[in-house]
Amino acid sequence: MFQPVFNTGKLFRQYLLAGSHASKVRIQNLLGKYFFTNGIMVKDEYGTILKLIPNDWISRIMLMDDSYENLSVKLAKELLKNGGLFIDIGANFGLYTCTVSENKAVHVYAIEPNYMIIPRLLENIELNKRNNVTVMNVALSNGFQFVSFDLPKAHNLGSATFTVKSKAPFCTLSCSLNYIFQSQHIQTVELIKIDIEGNEFGILEDFRFDDYKIKNLIMEFNQLSKVSFTQVHSFFLNKGFKSFTIEGKELLNDKSGIPENNIWFVNQNVT
Predict the structure, then answer these.
(1) By percentage, how much of the chain surpasses pLDDT 70?
(2) Which residues in 119-240 belong to E strands, given as ranges?
(3) 3-class state of residue 201 by DSSP
(4) Given a cut of 70, is residue 3 above it in pLDDT?
(5) Which SS3 state, helix, strand or coil, does residue 103 take?
(6) How far apart (Å, rounded) are the C-alpha atoms in residues 170 and 213?
(7) Of 119, 192, 200, 264, which has the fewest beta carbons less than 10 angstroms from its beta carbon?
(8) Alpha carbon of residue 250 to chain centroid
(9) Contact 74, 193 (CB under 8 A)
């Protein structure tokens, strides 16, 4: 559980949790903008430090709830307790990357295309002195191409999307997940976490599962996903994966809900 390190951050958290009143959101934004220009430092019980952007949506949740996707992060740490390779696709400011890389037997590839987030991700890695992390400032798609950057929600840097367009004001290069594995000489991955605003299945659909081995996969699935649960479940079942909630309950449909909007896929063919 992450708690603010300094008293100013603690006071800001208390104000966020206080009862609502007129113009509260505006005041919160002004406080975040002018009093925390260098971010708000938080630390968990294991000593992992994160510097949060106070007016970002995920940061606000972490400040109010002491965590974000807490069950999914715990699952990632448990799956990697004996070490191994972790690929964090959609690393954002480094919640999963910095938390999981506390285990020095783990090596992390943190993939984040959003140039606005990269400085914060690098800073959080440096704050924790993580020398077992490789950052890749690249978008993922089905091949080498330029993709356009769009930020539909200015208050949520994690909402950035990257799409193929003939013309756009800002573009970045993208590559396939296959190329990441090929270029880095990766054969087996203990865990991949992928959260890329609805484009998760499109990236994995073209992945060469017969050539490279993924033991575990935590994939976001919500209203942004471009496919149905039935399609996703059937696809991974054919690849040898069983579907579970992050709490370990086998997931055969989405009627009962998906905690934290994450599905845990376990490869039955890889030990």
Answers:
(1) 96
(2) 133-136, 139-140, 145-150, 161-163, 171-175, 188-194, 213-220
(3) helix
(4) yes
(5) coil
(6) 34
(7) 119
(8) 23
(9) no
Amino acid present at 3: Q
Name the 3-class secondary structure at 196.
coil
Among 83, 106, 92, which residue's Cα sits nearest to residue 58?
92
Residues 67-107 have pLDDT tens digits of 999 999 999 999 999 999 999 999 999 999 999 999 999 99
Could you identify the residue written with the tokens 């799956």? Answer: 79
Protein fold of 70-267: Rossmann fold (3.40.50)
Task: Give the SS3 label for residue 64.
Answer: helix
Rounded Cα gap, residues 196 and 181, in angstroms: 18
Specify the DSSP class assigned to residue 259. G
Euclidean distance between CA atoms 22 and 40, whole angstroms: 25
CA 151 centroid distance within chain:
16
Instruction: Return the exposure string of 209-234: e unless at least 16 CB atoms fall within 10 Å of the residue's CB, then b.
Output: eeebebbbbbbbbeeebeeebeebbe
The pLDDT, as a whole number, for residue 223 is 86
Instruction: Kindly state the tokens that stand for 131.
Output: 């020398």
CB contact at 8 A, 268 and 94: no
HSE (side-chain half, CA atoms, 13 Å) at 265: 27
Residues 198 and 220: their CA atoms lie apart, in Å, by 8
Q: Which residue has the tokens 């993939």?
A: 111
Helix residue spans in the chain (DSSP H): 7-17, 24-35, 57-65, 70-79, 95-100, 118-127, 177-183, 200-205, 229-238
Task: Estimate the crossing angle of helix 7-17 against helix 24-35, to 10 degrees.
Answer: 170
Nearest to 2 by CA among 100, 99, 108, 78: 99
Write out the two tokens for 17. 């949790």
Sequence spans of domains, the chain:
3-65, 70-267
